[in-house]
Design goal:
single chain, alpha/beta, Lyase, Ornithine Decarboxylase, Chain A, domain 1, TIM Barrel, 2 domains, eight-stranded parallel beta barrel, 22 strands, elongated
Length: 410
């Protein structure tokens, strides 16, 4: 994290110290570095400069419209999975011709909306979805650009709950069903088949699952003997959360994609989310209480699982660091927990930490992806603010919710 780091003993996001920021904004709040977002995106682009893919940012990873607008300025499109995400992408300024719509449960309303907006592709995930699209096409007398999502039956080797590429998963079509639907769509007068799509999961840190997926793709493309306009490889590239040396080899992945592209002479769509946004943000929180017990001490924070659910939902681990370093050591086992009445409302357990006290500010790192986008109002807690830092400029890109308005609206 080049732009989120310590300067002397104080943690900075770009040129703004968290200590200074936390005097102005109520905790918890999300704080992003625009410089880090752009740096991540440029690294991604540079490694794929030979294939020049259409980069469709995964909106589900972070749906803040101001951030989507910044990515739009850098040439990004959008990977969306709902009508709401299509609307957010369009509102941010992303062109319809750069929007790809996936998902297993697209409703008729959502499909009508996507077609009306003239988006680039609708990736079909079942035969019944294809039947519905054909029906809609006839009804409105409009041909529809589609892809078919293949389920390659590949284990991504990541957290099971975010793995999407096995036959037992609900996503895409098996080889047999893919080939069957392929024949039907190529004979359709209403659906224009432009793409073969695949996505095997999220937070993948090893190259082998992608390599195996590409081998399956080659096999299927050869069986169809069809010139696809696009191959949509999805996303899934992970980032290191705990071990900062455990980085995905993006260079090897780009070389594999380049080889396939040269052979089949098609355009490439990539749908990164976490790689672009994950390490660009921190959740700033304050210590409410320190509760001492026989075996461990609980550091009780004002951020809870409603603000960041990944640890409770996936047992994901995010490093937690102090906003200000000191030289004293806290040797007893400690557990960082939130205020919500759930045992799962905990973030991290450590054996060593610096001495901290109540009202100190702490930072939960690498929360840009699936942090705020999964936040909720559980226990009637207002969602936190989102702050975007651009060098020395501070911009509120989503205000903290007002608890009174929250209650009235319910």
């Amino acid at each position: 994290m080049k732009f989120l780091s310590y300067k002397k003993k104080n943690f900075f996001v770009d040129k703004i110290s968290i200590e200074k920021l936390s005097k102005k904004f109520k905790t918890p709040y999300y704080c992003y570095s625009l410089s880090q977002i752009k740096s991540n995106l440029n690294s991604f682009k540079n490694l794929f400069n030979k294939t020049k893919p259409l980069i469709c940012f995964s909106v589900k990873s972070n749906s803040n419209i101001k951030i989507l607008n910044e990515l739009k300025k850098e040439g990004c499109g959008a990977d969306v999975v709902s009508m709401g995400e299509i609307s957010a992408a369009l509102k941010s300024g992303i062109k319809p011709s750069k929007i790809v719509f996936s998902g297993v449960g697209k409703t008729e309303e959502e499909l009508f909306f996507a077609i009306k907006k003239n988006i680039l592709l609708i990736n079909i995930e079942s035969e019944n979805e294809a039947i519905l699209l054909d029906k809609i096409s006839k009804k409105i007398s409009k041909k529809i650009s589609v892809g078919i999502r293949l389920n390659p039956n590949i284990n991504s080797g990541n957290i099971r709950k975010i793995s999407t590429g096995l036959n037992e998963d609900k996503f895409g079509l098996t080889e047999k069903n893919f080939l069957s639907l392929f024949k039907k769509i190529t004979n359709s007068k209403n659906l224009i088949l432009n793409c073969i799509s695949v996505h095997i999961g999220s937070q993948i840190l090893k190259i082998d699952p992608f390599k195996n997926t590409l081998n399956v793709l080659k096999k299927i493309i050869n069986k169809t003997n069809f010139q696809f306009k696009y191959i949509d490889f999805g996303g899934g590239v992970g980032i290191p959360y705990e071990n900062k040396n455990n980085k995905f080899n993006l260079k090897k992945y780009s070389a594999l994609i380049e080889k396939l592209t040269l052979k089949h002479k098609c355009k490439i769509i990539l749908e990164p989310g976490r790689f672009i946004i994950g390490n660009s943000a921190t959740l700033v929180t304050k210590i409410t209480y320190i509760k001492k017990t026989k075996n461990k001490d609980f550091i009780i924070l004002d951020a809870g699982m409603n603000d960041l659910i990944r640890p409770a939902l996936y047992d994901a681990k995010h490093l937690i660091v102090p906003s200000k370093k000191n030289n004293t050591k806290y040797l007893k086992n400690i557990e960082f927990v939130g205020p919500i009445c759930e045992t799962s409302d905990k973030f991290l357990s450590v054996k060593k930490y610096q001495c901290v006290k109540e009202k100190d500010f702490l930072l939960i790192l690498d929360v840009g992806a699936y942090g705020m986008s999964l936040a909720s109002n559980y226990c009637f807690r207002p969602k936190p603010a989102e702050i975007l830092i651009n060098k020395s400029n501070i911009k509120v890109i989503r205000k903290r919710e007002n608890i009174n308005k929250l209650i009235i609206n319910n």
